[in-house]
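Lab notebook, bench 4. Still working through the backlog of constructs that have no structural model yet. Next entry is a single chain of 155 residues. Request: give me the C-alpha cells for it.
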Amino acid sequence: MEEARRRRRATAQLKEALRALSGQLSLLDRQVSARAELKDVDLDCLDVIGRHGPISPSALARQAGLHPATLTGILDRLERAGWIARERDTADRRAVLIKALPDRSGELFGLYSGMNRAMDEICAGYTETELHLVTGFLRQVTGAGGEATAALSQG
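Model written out:
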C-alpha cells in the first residue's frame, strides 16, 4: 500500500516536472521568437524544417499541425525574411521542397546557445546509460503527446 502511494506521488512529481519544462521551453521559444523577429508559429515551422528538411509544404503542414492555406502565409514571411528557400524537387520537378538557409539558421543557434551550454553541463553529470534511459523516456512521452494531439484533432 505504501509503495503504491509513493509510486503515485513520484509519477505525479514527474508529470509536474514535465509540465514545468514545457512551460519554461515555451517561454524560451517566445524570447527567441521576439529576438529573431519571428512569430511563434514561424519559429515552430523553422524547427520542423531544420529537423526534417528539406521538406514538402504538405509534410510541413502535417508536422506543424497547420492548415496548408495558413502555411502559405508563414512560408511567404519566412522566405521574405531570408530564413528559408523554396526549391524544385530534383526527383519531381513539379514538387517544391522547403529548406532552411544556413546563414539565418546560425542566428537561432546563437539565441539557443545559453540553453545548449546548460544542457551540456547537465548531461555531463549523467552516465551514458542514464542518458539513454532519459532519451528513451522522452521519446516515449513525445510519442504519447503526438497520439493525444492526433486524437484531439480528429474530433
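Notes after review: The mean pLDDT is 94. The longest strand covers residues 84-88. Flag for follow-up if needed.
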